[in-house]
Amino acid sequence: MQLKNSKVLIIFAFIAIYVIWGSTYLFNKIAVTELSPFFLASIRFLTAGFLILIIAKVLKKSLVISKKQLLNTLISGFLFLVYGNGVFVWALKYVDSGFASLLASTQPLFVLLLLRLIDQKKMQKKSIIGVLLGVFGMYLLVSQTEIAVSKESLLGIFMIFTCVLSWSYGSVFVSKADLPKNFFVSTGYQMITAGIVLIIASLGFDEAWLAPTSWSFKVQGSMLFLITFGSILAFTSFNYLLKSVSPEKVSTSAYVNPIIAMFLGWYFLNEEFTTQSIVASVVLLTGVYFITSRKRQV
Predict the structure, then answer these.
(1) pLDDT by residue (tens digit) across 226-248?
(2) pLDDT value of position 20
(3) Which Pfam families does the UniProt record give (predicted)?
Protein backbone atom coordinates (compact mmCIF):
# COMPACT_ATOMS: atom_id res chain seq x y z
CA MET A 1 0.00 0.00 0.00
CA GLN A 2 2.85 2.39 0.86
CA LEU A 3 4.56 1.66 -2.49
CA LYS A 4 1.29 2.30 -4.33
CA ASN A 5 0.80 5.62 -2.51
CA SER A 6 4.38 6.60 -3.36
CA LYS A 7 3.75 5.95 -7.06
CA VAL A 8 0.58 8.03 -6.95
CA LEU A 9 2.46 10.93 -5.32
CA ILE A 10 5.20 10.72 -7.96
CA ILE A 11 2.61 10.82 -10.76
CA PHE A 12 0.88 13.87 -9.26
CA ALA A 13 4.23 15.58 -8.69
CA PHE A 14 5.16 15.09 -12.35
CA ILE A 15 1.78 16.47 -13.42
CA ALA A 16 2.50 19.49 -11.22
CA ILE A 17 5.92 20.35 -12.70
CA TYR A 18 4.73 19.61 -16.24
CA VAL A 19 1.34 21.33 -16.29
CA ILE A 20 1.69 23.99 -13.58
CA TRP A 21 5.12 25.23 -14.60
CA GLY A 22 4.07 25.09 -18.24
CA SER A 23 0.95 27.09 -17.35
CA THR A 24 2.80 29.91 -15.57
CA TYR A 25 3.75 31.45 -18.93
CA LEU A 26 0.07 31.85 -19.78
CA PHE A 27 -0.90 33.33 -16.40
CA ASN A 28 2.08 35.70 -16.34
CA LYS A 29 1.12 36.86 -19.83
CA ILE A 30 -2.48 37.49 -18.70
CA ALA A 31 -1.42 39.33 -15.54
CA VAL A 32 1.17 41.54 -17.24
CA THR A 33 -1.48 42.91 -19.62
CA GLU A 34 -2.93 44.87 -16.67
CA LEU A 35 -0.22 44.97 -14.01
CA SER A 36 3.27 46.42 -14.18
CA PRO A 37 5.82 43.55 -14.38
CA PHE A 38 7.97 44.31 -11.32
CA PHE A 39 4.91 45.14 -9.23
CA LEU A 40 3.33 41.85 -10.33
CA ALA A 41 6.44 39.81 -9.48
CA SER A 42 6.92 41.55 -6.11
CA ILE A 43 3.39 40.75 -4.96
CA ARG A 44 3.73 37.15 -6.13
CA PHE A 45 7.01 36.41 -4.38
CA LEU A 46 6.40 38.35 -1.17
CA THR A 47 3.09 36.59 -0.62
CA ALA A 48 4.43 33.15 -1.55
CA GLY A 49 7.57 33.70 0.53
CA PHE A 50 5.65 34.50 3.71
CA LEU A 51 3.31 31.55 3.13
CA ILE A 52 6.26 29.20 2.67
CA LEU A 53 7.92 30.41 5.88
CA ILE A 54 4.62 29.88 7.72
CA ILE A 55 4.59 26.31 6.38
CA ALA A 56 8.19 25.87 7.57
CA LYS A 57 7.22 27.14 11.02
CA VAL A 58 4.24 24.78 11.18
CA LEU A 59 6.65 21.95 10.32
CA LYS A 60 8.78 23.18 13.23
CA LYS A 61 11.78 24.13 11.09
CA SER A 62 14.21 26.74 12.42
CA LEU A 63 14.07 30.04 10.55
CA VAL A 64 17.47 31.16 11.88
CA ILE A 65 20.16 31.58 9.20
CA SER A 66 23.75 32.81 9.27
CA LYS A 67 24.98 36.06 7.71
CA LYS A 68 26.71 34.12 4.94
CA GLN A 69 23.53 32.18 4.20
CA LEU A 70 21.57 35.43 4.12
CA LEU A 71 24.03 36.93 1.62
CA ASN A 72 23.86 33.83 -0.57
CA THR A 73 20.08 33.92 -0.32
CA LEU A 74 20.09 37.52 -1.57
CA ILE A 75 22.34 36.58 -4.50
CA SER A 76 20.36 33.49 -5.50
CA GLY A 77 17.06 35.34 -5.05
CA PHE A 78 18.27 38.07 -7.39
CA LEU A 79 19.53 35.64 -10.05
CA PHE A 80 16.43 33.44 -9.97
CA LEU A 81 13.54 35.69 -9.10
CA VAL A 82 14.44 39.36 -9.53
CA TYR A 83 16.21 39.12 -12.87
CA GLY A 84 15.46 35.57 -14.00
CA ASN A 85 11.71 35.94 -13.44
CA GLY A 86 10.96 39.64 -12.93
CA VAL A 87 12.64 40.79 -16.15
CA PHE A 88 11.23 37.73 -17.93
CA VAL A 89 7.70 38.86 -17.06
CA TRP A 90 8.56 42.33 -18.39
CA ALA A 91 9.69 40.76 -21.68
CA LEU A 92 6.32 38.97 -21.99
CA LYS A 93 4.84 42.36 -22.89
CA TYR A 94 6.58 42.01 -26.27
CA VAL A 95 6.79 38.24 -26.82
CA ASP A 96 4.07 35.56 -26.96
CA SER A 97 3.97 33.20 -23.97
CA GLY A 98 4.51 30.03 -26.01
CA PHE A 99 7.43 31.55 -27.90
CA ALA A 100 8.96 32.74 -24.63
CA SER A 101 8.68 29.24 -23.15
CA LEU A 102 10.68 27.86 -26.08
CA LEU A 103 13.43 30.40 -25.46
CA ALA A 104 13.40 29.49 -21.75
CA SER A 105 13.81 25.80 -22.60
CA THR A 106 17.42 26.57 -23.59
CA GLN A 107 18.39 26.72 -19.91
CA PRO A 108 20.08 23.26 -19.88
CA LEU A 109 22.24 24.46 -22.78
CA PHE A 110 23.32 27.58 -20.87
CA VAL A 111 24.00 25.56 -17.69
CA LEU A 112 26.17 23.14 -19.66
CA LEU A 113 28.19 25.96 -21.24
CA LEU A 114 28.63 27.70 -17.87
CA LEU A 115 29.89 24.49 -16.27
CA ARG A 116 32.30 24.14 -19.18
CA LEU A 117 33.62 27.65 -18.56
CA ILE A 118 33.63 27.61 -14.75
CA ASP A 119 34.59 24.02 -13.92
CA GLN A 120 36.37 23.18 -17.21
CA LYS A 121 34.22 20.07 -17.55
CA LYS A 122 34.62 18.27 -20.85
CA MET A 123 31.54 17.88 -23.02
CA GLN A 124 30.30 14.43 -23.93
CA LYS A 125 29.29 13.60 -27.50
CA LYS A 126 25.59 13.84 -26.63
CA SER A 127 26.18 17.25 -25.07
CA ILE A 128 27.98 18.54 -28.17
CA ILE A 129 25.15 17.33 -30.41
CA GLY A 130 22.65 18.95 -28.05
CA VAL A 131 24.48 22.28 -28.08
CA LEU A 132 24.69 22.32 -31.88
CA LEU A 133 21.00 21.48 -32.25
CA GLY A 134 20.10 24.03 -29.58
CA VAL A 135 22.04 26.84 -31.27
CA PHE A 136 20.53 25.96 -34.65
CA GLY A 137 17.03 25.84 -33.12
CA MET A 138 17.53 29.27 -31.51
CA TYR A 139 18.71 30.66 -34.86
CA LEU A 140 15.59 29.34 -36.60
CA LEU A 141 13.40 30.90 -33.91
CA VAL A 142 14.84 34.41 -33.90
CA SER A 143 15.64 34.71 -37.62
CA GLN A 144 12.01 34.77 -38.72
CA THR A 145 10.95 37.75 -40.83
CA GLU A 146 7.97 38.47 -38.56
CA ILE A 147 10.35 38.99 -35.64
CA ALA A 148 13.21 40.70 -37.45
CA VAL A 149 10.98 43.62 -38.47
CA SER A 150 9.85 44.27 -34.90
CA LYS A 151 12.34 46.05 -32.66
CA GLU A 152 10.17 45.40 -29.59
CA SER A 153 10.14 41.64 -30.26
CA LEU A 154 13.90 41.60 -30.73
CA LEU A 155 14.34 43.48 -27.44
CA GLY A 156 12.03 41.03 -25.68
CA ILE A 157 13.96 38.04 -27.08
CA PHE A 158 17.31 39.51 -26.07
CA MET A 159 16.11 40.18 -22.52
CA ILE A 160 14.66 36.67 -22.22
CA PHE A 161 18.04 35.19 -23.16
CA THR A 162 19.70 37.32 -20.45
CA CYS A 163 17.07 36.02 -18.00
CA VAL A 164 17.82 32.43 -18.98
CA LEU A 165 21.52 33.14 -18.49
CA SER A 166 20.80 34.62 -15.05
CA TRP A 167 18.68 31.60 -14.05
CA SER A 168 21.34 29.22 -15.38
CA TYR A 169 24.14 30.91 -13.46
CA GLY A 170 21.88 30.87 -10.40
CA SER A 171 21.60 27.08 -10.74
CA VAL A 172 25.39 26.74 -10.81
CA PHE A 173 25.79 29.21 -7.91
CA VAL A 174 23.24 27.45 -5.68
CA SER A 175 24.91 24.07 -6.25
CA LYS A 176 28.05 25.45 -4.58
CA ALA A 177 26.69 28.08 -2.15
CA ASP A 178 26.06 27.78 1.58
CA LEU A 179 22.28 28.06 1.91
CA PRO A 180 19.79 26.98 4.61
CA LYS A 181 19.53 23.19 4.50
CA ASN A 182 15.76 23.14 4.76
CA PHE A 183 14.14 23.61 1.36
CA PHE A 184 11.18 25.65 2.65
CA VAL A 185 13.38 28.01 4.67
CA SER A 186 15.79 28.63 1.78
CA THR A 187 13.00 29.20 -0.75
CA GLY A 188 11.00 31.40 1.60
CA TYR A 189 13.90 33.76 2.27
CA GLN A 190 14.81 33.88 -1.42
CA MET A 191 11.26 34.89 -2.33
CA ILE A 192 10.93 37.51 0.40
CA THR A 193 14.29 39.16 -0.33
CA ALA A 194 13.52 39.09 -4.06
CA GLY A 195 10.09 40.60 -3.42
CA ILE A 196 11.66 43.51 -1.49
CA VAL A 197 14.17 44.17 -4.30
CA LEU A 198 11.37 44.01 -6.88
CA ILE A 199 9.35 46.58 -4.91
CA ILE A 200 12.37 48.92 -4.97
CA ALA A 201 12.74 48.30 -8.73
CA SER A 202 9.03 48.99 -9.25
CA LEU A 203 9.30 52.29 -7.39
CA GLY A 204 12.49 53.16 -9.27
CA PHE A 205 10.77 52.66 -12.63
CA ASP A 206 7.73 54.61 -11.38
CA GLU A 207 5.36 51.74 -12.09
CA ALA A 208 1.65 52.09 -11.41
CA TRP A 209 0.44 50.29 -8.28
CA LEU A 210 -3.09 48.97 -8.41
CA ALA A 211 -5.06 47.58 -5.47
CA PRO A 212 -6.15 43.94 -5.90
CA THR A 213 -9.78 45.05 -5.75
CA SER A 214 -9.26 46.99 -8.98
CA TRP A 215 -7.81 44.01 -10.86
CA SER A 216 -10.02 42.18 -13.32
CA PHE A 217 -11.27 38.74 -12.33
CA LYS A 218 -8.90 36.99 -14.77
CA VAL A 219 -5.88 38.83 -13.33
CA GLN A 220 -6.94 38.04 -9.76
CA GLY A 221 -7.27 34.39 -10.74
CA SER A 222 -3.91 34.43 -12.51
CA MET A 223 -2.15 35.90 -9.47
CA LEU A 224 -3.79 33.37 -7.16
CA PHE A 225 -2.61 30.57 -9.44
CA LEU A 226 0.94 31.93 -9.66
CA ILE A 227 1.24 32.26 -5.88
CA THR A 228 -0.36 29.01 -4.70
CA PHE A 229 0.40 26.64 -7.55
CA GLY A 230 3.33 28.18 -9.46
CA SER A 231 5.37 29.37 -6.47
CA ILE A 232 4.47 26.83 -3.76
CA LEU A 233 2.96 23.57 -5.05
CA ALA A 234 5.06 23.06 -8.18
CA PHE A 235 8.30 23.99 -6.45
CA THR A 236 7.51 21.58 -3.59
CA SER A 237 6.73 18.84 -6.12
CA PHE A 238 10.05 19.53 -7.84
CA ASN A 239 11.91 19.08 -4.56
CA TYR A 240 9.98 15.87 -3.79
CA LEU A 241 10.83 14.38 -7.19
CA LEU A 242 14.53 15.14 -6.79
CA LYS A 243 14.47 12.88 -3.71
CA SER A 244 12.25 10.19 -5.23
CA VAL A 245 13.37 9.65 -8.83
CA SER A 246 16.50 10.23 -10.93
CA PRO A 247 17.48 13.81 -11.85
CA GLU A 248 17.32 12.81 -15.53
CA LYS A 249 13.60 12.11 -15.23
CA VAL A 250 12.95 15.36 -13.36
CA SER A 251 14.83 17.32 -16.03
CA THR A 252 12.29 16.21 -18.65
CA SER A 253 10.25 19.24 -17.56
CA ALA A 254 12.70 21.34 -19.63
CA TYR A 255 11.16 20.08 -22.84
CA VAL A 256 7.60 19.33 -21.67
CA ASN A 257 6.86 22.81 -20.25
CA PRO A 258 7.18 24.57 -23.65
CA ILE A 259 4.70 22.14 -25.24
CA ILE A 260 2.16 22.88 -22.49
CA ALA A 261 2.82 26.62 -22.74
CA MET A 262 2.51 26.69 -26.54
CA PHE A 263 -0.79 24.80 -26.47
CA LEU A 264 -2.28 27.03 -23.76
CA GLY A 265 -1.10 30.19 -25.52
CA TRP A 266 -2.67 29.00 -28.77
CA TYR A 267 -5.92 27.89 -27.15
CA PHE A 268 -6.57 30.78 -24.74
CA LEU A 269 -4.66 33.71 -26.24
CA ASN A 270 -4.93 32.85 -29.95
CA GLU A 271 -1.16 32.90 -30.29
CA GLU A 272 0.00 31.77 -33.73
CA PHE A 273 3.03 29.71 -34.68
CA THR A 274 4.63 29.70 -38.09
CA THR A 275 5.94 26.57 -39.78
CA GLN A 276 9.46 27.78 -39.04
CA SER A 277 8.60 28.12 -35.34
CA ILE A 278 7.31 24.55 -35.25
CA VAL A 279 10.43 23.21 -36.99
CA ALA A 280 12.63 25.31 -34.68
CA SER A 281 10.83 24.00 -31.59
CA VAL A 282 11.39 20.38 -32.69
CA VAL A 283 15.10 21.03 -33.34
CA LEU A 284 15.55 22.99 -30.11
CA LEU A 285 13.74 20.51 -27.86
CA THR A 286 15.64 17.63 -29.46
CA GLY A 287 18.85 19.43 -28.54
CA VAL A 288 17.61 19.87 -24.96
CA TYR A 289 16.80 16.16 -24.86
CA PHE A 290 20.37 15.25 -25.87
CA ILE A 291 21.74 17.53 -23.14
CA THR A 292 19.45 16.32 -20.34
CA SER A 293 19.81 12.61 -21.27
CA ARG A 294 23.61 12.55 -21.31
CA LYS A 295 25.42 10.32 -18.84
CA ARG A 296 26.19 12.03 -15.54
CA GLN A 297 29.90 12.10 -14.74
CA VAL A 298 30.95 11.13 -11.24
Answers:
(1) 999 998 998 778 877 866 776 55
(2) 93
(3) EamA
> Residue ranges of the domains in the chain?
1-293
The residue type of 32 is V
Please report, for residues 7, 9, 56, 88, 233, the alpha-carbon distance to residue 236 in angstroms, rounded to integers and kept in the order given: 16, 12, 12, 22, 5
The answer for residues whose C-beta is within 8 angstroms of residue 154's C-beta and 6 or more apart is 142, 147, 148
Say how many Å lie between the first and final Cα of the chain, rounded: 35
pLDDT of 134 reads 87
Identify the CA nearest to 48 among candidates 287, 297, 279, 226: 226
Closest CA to 98 of 249, 280, 230: 280
CA distance 242 to 186: 16
pLDDT of residue 30: 96
Cβ partners under 8 Å of residue 116, min gap 6: 122, 123
- Distance between CA 127 and CA 144 in Å, rounded? 26
| pLDDT for the residue numbered 298 | 40
State how far the Cα of 7 lies from the Cα of 1, in Å rounded to an integer: 10
Low-confidence ranges of the chain (pLDDT < 50): 297-298
Task: Name the pTM for this structure.
Answer: 0.87
Instruction: Determine whether 190 is exposed, middle or buried from the number of CB atoms within 10 Å of its CB (0-12, 13-18, 19+).
Output: buried
Q: Helix or strand or coil: residue 123?
A: coil
* Residue 121, phi then psi, degrees to nearest 5: -80, 135
